[in-house]
From TrEMBL:
Gene Ontology molecular functions: D-ribulose-phosphate 3-epimerase activity; metal ion binding
Gene3D superfamilies: Aldolase class I
Residue numbers binding substrate: S9, H67, G143, F144, G145, G146, D176, G177, G178
Needed cofactors: Fe(2+); a divalent metal cation; Co(2+); Mn(2+)
Keywords carried by this UniProt record: Carbohydrate metabolism, Cobalt, Isomerase, Manganese, Metal-binding, Zinc
EC number: 5.1.3.1
Catalytic residue list: D36, D176
The protein's name in its UniProt record: Ribulose-phosphate 3-epimerase
Free-text cofactor note: Binds 1 divalent metal cation per subunit.
One record GO biological process: pentose-phosphate shunt
Catalytic activity: D-ribulose 5-phosphate = D-xylulose 5-phosphate
Amino acid sequence: MKTPLIAPSLLAANFLEIGKEVEMVNNSEADWLHLDVMDGRFVPNISFGLPVISQISKIAKKVCDVHLMIEEPEKYAEAFQKAGAQILTVHIEACVHLHRNLQQIRSLGMKAGIAVNPHTSIGLLENVIRDADVVLLMSVNPGFGGQHFIEQTYAKIRALRALIDQTGSSALIEIDGGVTLDNARSILDAGADVLVAGNTVFASKDPIATIKALKQ
């Protein structure tokens, strides 16, 4: 089995020590740094935005994986690229013209991701899967950390893996929400490539060891 990519989610970090938290991720076996942007409209929460990501990207040595949980993401794609985003993921539910959104992101030199909420069918990705570099399956309802993994996600991972294989897409499957040391193996066995982990990493007594355990 191939080694998974690990993307600690900074939403669960101690924001009074944000520089130290980023350095911890830099010094770990993590592959990406997951950055959740929430607007209080698409999801019922507000997180951080462009100024924070711009500062984080200056010291981050991992890939900056920016997940936009916002309405009208096309208005901000260029700004997030300038702030340091290397992967930019938009929600299928927030995009009226998803194919155009993906083209825009790629034209700016970033990898393009599609995020999918728990209620959204994998079948809706059929006509855009080849245009995505990443598909992020939400395994909790978006907006808040610390939620429990939705079991139906395993079936969605398998369905998405089948769609990717059938279409010849090279998209990676990223799982976000409720990922723990207990369920990581089952998630990967279902076909996932990337694990986003927030509380599991940042609430751990030894985050670097926890990232290593997820990686293994």
